[in-house]
């Protein structure tokens, strides 16, 4: 991902990535979980408006290659948004569920090719009796997706702009963001056309930019990225101990799979066994809805016997002597799962043990991702290698990890929560929920404020238009009203960010000022106009309501 194209900054705060945005002429910082929760809350509102009932439970999907920390963060975002998160499930698994819900696919092997806006996943599933959907392998790249194709187009058009105008816009964030928006439209257009034109007015210092690109050139720009996805397909096939000819059907998921060259590459690689029967934008959501129905106890005949068996995307283990990764759970192990390994002391009469939990495939832990560290105390002193500690890794159906340590010599068993510093504490979650509610109320008030502003603006132009087209007024009166309308229009331009009450007071002031002329223009319809202004989605305060009634009387 290229940070230059983002309309916000990412800063390091105690080792955590924090989103920094401009808010109300100042700077506001948000954890990634908070940003995600805002999106989820908006989706919650849309679902409730469509269904006409409260929606408080959800299945949330994530890229198959999400780490344990990323899954935990996603679950936190769901809680902050007001959901009881029933399951965090992998996107390719959900898509496979949507694809095969009404098909007879017992014994078939399905490969899900999921290329979205920012991530790429490939998963291989086998459909068994039950039916049971068993994920055999998964691979992916959390930094490969449609945005990377957009960035290649931005680089192409930026270079074209430099050659034509001798200006480098790559150091200008505003120009880059506008060009990226246009580049995404070009990419979409090239899915159905062989040539596209990009047009951006005043891209830099009032210079209008117009550029052209063919589908062939676009494919050349992104060719290496397209073929990188094949490498991950081959990795998944190797992990599943399958050959490409063993795959019965390939499912395309994600908006980027609409790119003709990607479809061509896959059709050639799999000799035509590619299905385009699902809407790539909706397939994952469809599968998540099916999973939610299953977990909610829905008794529909099509889903009551379905069972999903997902896998661990990355190996999990602990650090041993000289920083070697000792794997407790291998990647692509079916979940939920539970594995136990024994550890021993390295020093004589050692009475405690520090256990570091890692995630990744590298031999040395320094090259993997640290999930958490904990200390186990109270080990009976003994020569090195005598004391034994059983460490159990337990992964639930959501792919969430917990660790238990058992001192074998005493039989004492203790459950230990991994204290991952990159995770959000319960106290922080509570604060996020409170902050989110504050912002929601601010959003509602801002919406009411904008509605007041729009109604005031509509009223001003309504008066102006009625005066200009009136046969009851003389030319001098029409010109006078037109001139009087200029001042409130300028006031709106200068005070567009003022409080709702200011717009309401301005409305009252103008209605008093123009009451006589509007009576002349509209007669008895003036009361109707004022009533209509008040009957929209906000309530005029009582003092202004009486003032308006006084004007009408």
UniProtKB/TrEMBL annotation:
| Keywords assigned by UniProt, alphabetized | ATP-binding, Nucleotide-binding
PROSITE patterns (alphabetical):
HSP70_2, HSP70_3
Per the record, a Pfam family? HSP70
Keyword Phosphoprotein on entry: no
- Family matches, as InterPro entries: ATPase_NBD, Heat_shock_70_CS, HSP70_C_sf, HSP70_peptide-bd_sf, Hsp_70_fam
Its Gene Ontology molecular function terms? ATP binding; ATP-dependent protein folding chaperone
In terms of Gene3D superfamilies, this protein maps to:
1.20.1270.10, 3.30.30.30, 3.30.420.40, Actin, Chain A, domain 4, Substrate Binding Domain Of DNAk, Chain A, domain 1
The UniProt entry's sequence similarity note says: Belongs to the heat shock protein 70 family.
Protein's name in the database: Uncharacterized protein
Q: What is the source species?
A: Bombyx mori (Silk moth)
């Amino acid at each position: 991902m290229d940070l230059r194209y983002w309309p916000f900054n990412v800063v390091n705060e105690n080792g955590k990535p924090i989103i920094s945005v401009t808010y109300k002429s100042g700077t506001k910082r948000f954890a990634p979980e908070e940003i995600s929760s805002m999106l989820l809350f908006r989706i919650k509102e849309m679902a409730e408006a469509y269904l006409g009932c409260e929606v408080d439970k959800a299945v949330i999907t994530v890229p198959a290659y999400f780490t344990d920390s990323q899954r935990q963060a996603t679950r936190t975002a769901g809680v902050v948004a007001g959901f009881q998160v029933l399951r965090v499930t992998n996107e390719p698994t959900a898509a496979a569920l949507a694809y095969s819900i009404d098909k007879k696919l017992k014994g078939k092997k399905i490969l899900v090719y999921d290329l979205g806006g920012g991530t790429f996943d490939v998963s291989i599933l086998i459909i068994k009796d039950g039916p049971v959907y068993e994920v055999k392998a998964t691979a992916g790249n959390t930094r490969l997706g449609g945005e990377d194709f957009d960035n290649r187009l931005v680089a192409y058009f930026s270079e074209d702009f430099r050659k034509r105008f001798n200006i480098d816009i790559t150091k200008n964030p505003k120009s880059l963001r506008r060009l990226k928006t246009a580049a995404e439209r070009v990419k979409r257009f090239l899915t159905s056309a062989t040539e596209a034109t990009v047009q951006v007015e005043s891209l830099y210092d009032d210079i209008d930019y117009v550029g052209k690109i063919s589908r062939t050139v676009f494919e050349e720009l992104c060719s290496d990225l397209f073929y990188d996805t094949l490498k991950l397909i081959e990795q998944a096939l190797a992990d599943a101990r399958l050959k490409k000819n063993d795959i019965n059907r390939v499912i395309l998921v994600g908006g980027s799979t609409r790119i003709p060259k990607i479809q061509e590459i896959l059709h050639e690689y799999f000799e035509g066994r590619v299905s385009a029967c699902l809407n790539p934008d909706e397939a994952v959501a469809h599968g998540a809805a099916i999973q939610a129905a299953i977990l909610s106890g829905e008794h529909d005949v099509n889903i009551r016997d379905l069972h999903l068996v997902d896998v661990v995307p990355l190996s999990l283990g602990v650090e041993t002597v000289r920083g070697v990764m000792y794997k407790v759970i291998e990647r692509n192990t079916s979940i939920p799962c539970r594995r136990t390994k024994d550890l021993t002391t390295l020093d004589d009469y050692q009475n405690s043990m520090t256990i570091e939990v890692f995630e990744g495939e590298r031999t040395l832990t320094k090259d993997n991702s640290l999930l958490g560290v904990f200390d186990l105390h109270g080990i009976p002193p003994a020569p090195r290698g005598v004391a034994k500690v059983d460490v159990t890794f337990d992964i639930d159906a959501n792919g969430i990890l917990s660790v238990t340590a058992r001192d074998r010599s005493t039989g004492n068993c203790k459950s230990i929560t991994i204290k991952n510093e990159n995770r959000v504490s319960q106290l922080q979650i509570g604060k996020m929920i409170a902050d989110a509610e504050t912002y929601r109320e601010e959003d509602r008030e801002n919406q009411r404020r904008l509605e007041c502003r729009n109604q005031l603006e509509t009223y001003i132009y309504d008066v102006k238009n009625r005066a200009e087209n009136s046969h009851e007024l003389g030319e001098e009166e029409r010109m006078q009203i037109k001139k009087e309308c200029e001042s409130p229009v300028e006031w709106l331009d200068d005070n567009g960010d003022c409080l709702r009450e200011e717009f309401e007071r301005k409305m009252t002031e103008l209605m008093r000022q123009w009451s006589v002329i509007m009576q002349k223009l509209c007669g008895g319809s003036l009361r109707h106009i004022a009533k209509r202004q008040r009957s929209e989605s906000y309530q005029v305060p009582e003092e202004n309501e009486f003032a308006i009634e006084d004007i009408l009387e």
